[in-house]
Structures are given as C-alpha cells and as structure tokens.
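Hypothesis: this fold can be encoded by more than one sequence.
Test: take the structure tokens below, design a sequence, compare later.
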C-alpha cells in the first residue's frame, strides 16, 4: 500500500546555487550523489522520515542520451528547468511496489514495472530502491518508490538529518494546481486507489482543494478561486505541483534564520485550520513555493 509522500523533487539549473539558496532558508542540505547513466546529480535535505531533493543536470550529453528512453522520468527535464524549474515530481512511498503496480493495473491505470535503481553518495554509501512511473494514459506528476535501504541507513547519507536551523522536521502537504479540481481528484483517486475527498477551501493558496491523506502527509489537488500562489503557478506553468508545506518547531526561529542570511520577510497567511503560515516564493525557492507552518 501507499504509506506516505516520500519526498518532493525540485529541479534547479545549478545544484551548488540551489544548495546555497535552500541553506539560506534554513535547510540542512548536502550533495547527495550522482545518478549513473542519467547525467543528473542531486542534493538532499532530510527531515525525520521524508526529504527534499534538489535535482540538476550534471552531464548534458549523458542526460540527453538517457532522456530518450521512454521509461525514463527525466525526459523533458532540460526544458522544465529552462522554463523556471520547481517541483516536478511528488514521490509516493510504497511498502510493496510490485503489489501496488498490479493493483493499479487492475484499476486500468497505465503504469510501468517496478524497476530497481540506486545511487552512490559522496561518502560511498550505496542506496537502493524500486521505482515505477505512470504511462502516457495517466500522465500525473507522481513517481512511486519502495526503498530497499532501511530508513535508519538512509538518514546517515547526510550529516544532521532532521536537524534544520529553520526547525523543519516533517513534510505536511504538497499541492498540485489544476483547472478542474473535481475532475483531477477523480483521476488521482483512481490512480491511488483511494476515495475521492470532498473539496475544501484553502485560504493561503486561495483555492478549492481535494486533499488525499497518505499516512502523515497530504496530497492536495487545488483549483484557484482568487488571485494567489495557485493562480500564479497555473498561469506561469500550467497544471502541476507548485508548493510543499513543511512543519517547523518554531516559525520565529525559521524567520530569524532567513533574515540573518539575507532573505526578505516571507509572505504570511492564515490556513483554514486557523494556523499561521509563511510562504517562500518561486524567486526565493528555485521555482517552487515552500511553506512553513507551526508555533511561533
């Protein structure tokens, strides 16, 4: 079964610059290693059980050769980055990916096989997983993953996993903007094998949204009803993922860190839960909206 959102993939034009910007936001982020045969490399900011991945092209010739393979999710990466980058995929974790692929196919979902993959960290650690991508009949921005490396070992890939200066400890929700939330939510419900949630009103992203709860994390399908982050993302990039919202132990500590590292004050809003939230814009977060919620 699908257990949680594992991570968000944020695609950037230059990995060192992306690392620098996310460190300014208070994330303890480090180079993660290279993807052999794909021409890409990444950086990881690990929380307690999920993480942020920054992804960039490392070798354009190698990437171009690999991107031509139909099963490679990196196809179109170069043009995505050239158009501004940001969140390209939401990676959903499975505890038995082969079984979940079979279940999706029984619902007439177009999905590829669970294929083993891996990467080597700069410290020489081998990380292994199985992954499956959706086919052209269901072109959603989701990749499915089953980790073959235990979580305790994966936390060791970066120093101080889960200890960020901004106090972030968990991903709360990822948002996908669409022009028709009801229709899009029906498609996501079929793919995920979950009931379609009712629409609720989002007051920070100014959208009506259907939220799928995947363990402790939420996947929100949002349709703007007024100008705001979702409407901006839809106009700039069209439908797709645009925001990740993180839980922090202290909004004040996060704001102070960013101010001390040269970032302007983040926009503030009040969620439909009554909680206050801060939001970094795409200009401040490498093409993505990055939100923070928690006590002051």
């Amino acid at each position: 079964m699908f257990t949680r959102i594992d991570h968000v993939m944020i695609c950037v034009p230059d990995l060192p610059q992306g690392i620098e910007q996310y460190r300014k936001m208070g994330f303890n982020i480090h180079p993660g290693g290279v993807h052999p045969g794909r021409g890409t490399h990444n950086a990881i900011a690990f929380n307690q059980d999920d993480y942020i991945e920054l992804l960039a092209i490392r070798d354009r010739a190698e990437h171009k050769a690999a991107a031509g393979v139909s099963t490679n999710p990196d196809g179109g990466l170069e043009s995505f980055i050239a158009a501004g980058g940001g969140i390209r995929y939401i990676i959903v974790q499975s505890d038995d990916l082969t079984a979940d692929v079979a279940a999706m196919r029984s619902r007439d979902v177009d999905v590829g096989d669970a294929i083993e993959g891996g990467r080597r960290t700069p410290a020489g650690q081998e990380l292994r997983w199985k992954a499956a991508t959706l086919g052209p009949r269901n072109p959603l921005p989701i990749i499915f993953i089953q980790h073959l490396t235990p979580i305790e070992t994966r936390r060791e890939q970066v120093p101080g996993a889960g200890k960020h200066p901004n106090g972030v400890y968990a991903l709360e929700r990822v948002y996908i903007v669409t022009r028709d939330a009801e229709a899009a939510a029906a498609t996501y419900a079929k793919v995920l094998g979950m009931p379609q949630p009712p629409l609720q009103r989002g007051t920070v992203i100014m959208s009506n949204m259907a939220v799928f709860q995947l363990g402790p994390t939420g996947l929100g399908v949002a349709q703007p009803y007024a100008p705001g982050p979702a409407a901006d993302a839809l106009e700039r990039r069209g439908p797709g993922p645009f925001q990740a919202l993180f839980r922090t132990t202290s909004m004040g500590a996060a704001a102070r860190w960013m101010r001390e590292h040269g970032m302007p004050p983040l926009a503030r809003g009040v969620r439909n839960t009554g909680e206050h939230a801060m939001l970094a814009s795409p200009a401040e977060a490498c093409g993505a909206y990055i939100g923070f919620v928690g006590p002051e």
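The two ends are 36 Å apart (CA to CA). The longest helix spans residues 181-192.
Hypothesis status: open.
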